[in-house]
Design goal:
This protein is mostly helical. The protein has 2 helices and no strands. It starts with a helix and ends with a helix.
Length: 101
Amino acid sequence: MRSTDRVNEYYAKKSKQDKAMFSEKLKKVQDDDDVKKKAQHQQDSIIEMMKMLMRDAQDRADKQLDDAVKQATVQPAVWLRIQRCTSYERRWRNWRTNSTI
């Protein structure tokens, strides 16, 4: 075997090793990118879910508020009774504190 054949064989072997090492590094970088993309996708999904939950909670709160307002307008007699009771209680307290025994 000639020395040039050995040199060519050495460089071919070295080139093959370099290509293998480069392809491993490339694969690792691509895997890291995939992991980052998956993590970003999960984070985006969680954010969207939280936004949806917040919208649902806001809708429920608005509905409860509307229902409470409707009930207050539908039953004014109950509100008047409550006001009368509190005014009677105030009068009673005032009478007790101002009366001399």
